[in-house]
Amino acid sequence: MVGAITALVGTEGHQVITAYDGLTAVRRVRDESPDVVLLDLAMPGPDGFTVIGQIRALGGAPVIVVSGESGEAAKVRALRLGADDYLTKPFGRAELLARIAAVMRRVEGGTAGPAGGGPLRAGSLELDPRRHEARVGASVLALTPTEYRLLEALLRAGGDVVPHHQLARAGWPTESDPDLLWLKPHLARLRSKLVEVGGPTIAPVRAVGYRIATDEPNGDR
Known about the structure:
Helix 2 runs parallel beside helix 3 (48-58) and helix 6 (145-156) packs across helix 8. The protein has 8 helices and 10 strands. It is globular and about 50 Å long. The protein is α+β, with helices and mostly antiparallel strands.
């Protein structure tokens, strides 16, 4: 599978770095700083779930899980740990390349929409779509592409509630019907990063959606 994927994405002009076990994967991510990680869940040494967490601790490289495990529990666990996308085997050549291209476009080009590319603010938090950067004071947030898109959608709402389905579509624009269960783990990680640097909280509105809030104590459901 590693050889097949390497040959496939290499024909599209991507430079490929390979690893055949969890320890090597984490080391190569740390040493090589790849633009995107394709990660299986079953591998020698630390499994894919453990590797996702370790990659997340290293920074914001987007992770696309490529797995034969199609169960919902595995997908939710991977997303909760910080995966940005989940592709189930078997998959087509066109789908894999489309997922990679979508992630790369978001990382390289930002996600500013028709509302404009000027900075978005909520209290001490500022998001600059032109630089694809979010900061609280002097602290730049290390966000995954999915976390960035979710935060941008919340900020563009100006404190109004963003419904679950609308927020999910903003977070996973390549999915025709994104699972709403994906929202909670990603928003929990995003909320934790904001709280850590003294930024505004993300407030759930039960059975409706979420909003960015600068006037409420930090908290979860």
